[in-house]
From TrEMBL, chains A, B:
Keywords: Transferase. SUPFAM superfamilies: GST C-terminal domain-like (SSF47616), Thioredoxin-like (SSF52833). InterPro entries: Glutathione-S-Trfase_C-like, Glutathione-S-Trfase_C_sf, Glutathione_S-Trfase_N, GST_C, GST_superfamily, Thioredoxin-like_sf. This is Glutathione S-transferase. Pfam families: GST_C_3. GO terms for molecular function: glutathione transferase activity. GO terms for biological process: glutathione metabolic process. PANTHER family: GLUTATHIONE S-TRANSFERASE (PTHR11571).
Amino acid sequence: MPYNLWYWPGIQGRGEFVRLALEAAGIEYRDCARERGAEALMEDMASHSRRPPFAPPYLTLDGFAIAQVANILLYLGEHHDLAPSRLADRLWLHQLQLTIADMVAEVHNIHHPVAMGAYYEDQKPEAARAAEQFRAERMPKFLGHFEDAAKANPGEWLIDHRWTYADTSLFQLVEGLRYMFPRRMAAIEGDYPQLLKIHAQVKTLPGIAAYLASDRRLPFNTDGIFRHYPELDEA
Amino acid sequence: MPYNLWYWPGIQGRGEFVRLALEAAGIEYRDCARERGAEALMEDMASHSRRPPFAPPYLTLDGFAIAQVANILLYLGEHHDLAPSRLADRLWLHQLQLTIADMVAEVHNIHHPVAMGAYYEDQKPEAARAAEQFRAERMPKFLGHFEDAAKANPGEWLIDHRWTYADTSLFQLVEGLRYMFPRRMAAIEGDYPQLLKIHAQVKTLPGIAAYLASDRRLPFNTDGIFRHYPELDEA
């Protein structure tokens, strides 16, 4: 039985981190709100009254919903062998995923620094300040952390000798940052050769290559998490 | 052998979520940076070069470090029986903890909306806007979610009939919000009776009562995550 994935239609957003792991592993799923619309998503979300997701994305199976990207990936990792089996390794992988989630939250905060519920247009001066410190301080700090993590692993992936969900997530992080900050990324990404290597390796995994070539992969846009506003980018 | 907990001395911060679980369960730990200072923390953090924490808090055991609050609690939950054993229950609990982490990140964002590395004093107008939407929209949304979660459980805790790490974390959330937004919390907390009940129950757990009465429990202050700036509070 395929999984039901529920996420806002029309954007990659946080749902993409789940999609990439599913696609790379060849796990069957239905992208329910893409098929049935945002209203169906809101109805389905309200139906999980016993254990409600706070927000999409979530995956349903056997009548219950698993929400929070890192939690979904933790589950998929253990049940579809997309994660190592040693405890220390599993915790390390999850830790990296949680740090990716932290960076993604900071990325969202750039275009919505003071009012999550209002438009970017209503907080442009604040966003400009947020983008400046993100480009200067946070980007190198996060990317340097992931580079160090990858470098310390003797294998060619983040952990061990095969891809895991944190590798597909790093791929998406690089893709998103290149879309959002093309000038800044061009200026600094060379400092992170291991990250770029993992990005390139993920891109050619058969499941990912097929996905990226399909119409299931939506283009980035300015409704998602990673948004390209030229005024926020600078080398 | 006691665990080594490493976190910035002088504040409760994110470390407090780990401390509360350890104290409630009576698990021995050494609060290393309280004993040895911030410089020792930075040295220790740098020593984990193979698998570096991105930031404190982290727990060390058998030579490796576990970072990210929710990850640490996941580990403690499984290894010290502070979490249920059924898969669906464990995922639900972790999901709640991750949503608590999201709220804590938004709380931090209030006083540092545009420049995480700068002082609050350098971003006061932005912080005022961020606080306004947090009080009006985000607080009721998050607290309502946790209230619904607690209400849906037939037992007297968040899950089942005994406390887990998410209960001690909710306790800290209520404590922190009461310190940071006394007027706002006084105005709305009555809407969340189940949350307040869990808060009261955690407070009287023997391990927590002893901890709160000890000098190990630092007072809240304006260096931590929850900061009381009267100008940001309003009913």
